[in-house]
Design goal:
The protein is α/β, with parallel strands linked by helices. The chain is 36% helix and 14% strand. It has one domain: 3-Layer(aba) Sandwich (Rossmann fold), CATH 3.40.50. The chain contains 7 helices and 6 strands, in the order E-H-E-H-H-E-E-H-H-E-H-E-H. The structure holds flavin mononucleotide (FMN).
Amino acid sequence: MSANDVVLAITGASGSAYALRLAQLLLAAGKNLHLVVSGAARQVMARELAAEFPRNGTSSEEWTAMIEHTLAGPIASAWGFCPPATSNAAPSHGSVRAYGTSDYSAGIASGSFRTSGMVICPCSMGTLSAIATGASTNLIQRAADVHLKERRPLVLVPRETPLSLIQLENMTRLSQAGATIMPSMPGFYHRPMRIADLVDFVVARILDHLQVEHTLMNRWGEEPSLD
Ligand SMILES: Cc1cc2nc3c(=O)[nH]c(=O)nc-3n(C[C@H](O)[C@H](O)[C@H](O)COP(=O)(O)O)c2cc1C
């Protein structure tokens, strides 16, 4: 466990591709991923990318292969993702350790396990609500609770529209408690040509907040003229 360790939770909001692309980039940056996937996230992935997450206990190599395979698969390959900048020299060199949602004995359930932060991408309204109330009814919610109490970065990537007052208040409460609310809302000022450009817009902002170097996007003020 070290500052190179990042918790990635994937829940059942729409946007499985954000999670896979984020995982790919974190691995390319050499991060050790502590991964928790909710049951609903498995359903959404099957629907959106016609793919399955491996069972818990699957090796890091198999998780990495699944991520690469799905991003190169029949649906996502049409979206135009580019390989991570580091992949030529060293294909994904981080690691994946996956936990079941009820595995409360996992290190990430404790504040003594050091991480550089946690991201929930995508984050369902259900999980967001549970974290906002401190429910801790599964490992994802417990790990998020730990990141808040330890005052470590917690990035939530919710997706829903429109938003009810209850959902807005939950987000306000979490923001006040120290979480970063980063809805999957890509901009269009970089003139996206492919679906990958929209996904990468959001993933780049998440990586920025986790202080992970990347070359996914030109930064505003640094990009060449578009005209
Ligand atoms: C195909 C599909 C898409 C969904 N999209 C969303 C969504 O965008 N946002 C959301 O909050 N819930 C969405 N849901 C509903 C959640 O999956 C559901 O509320 C679930 O209980 C969330 O559980 P979890 O937080 O443990 O993953 C979707 C469900 C399915 C099957």
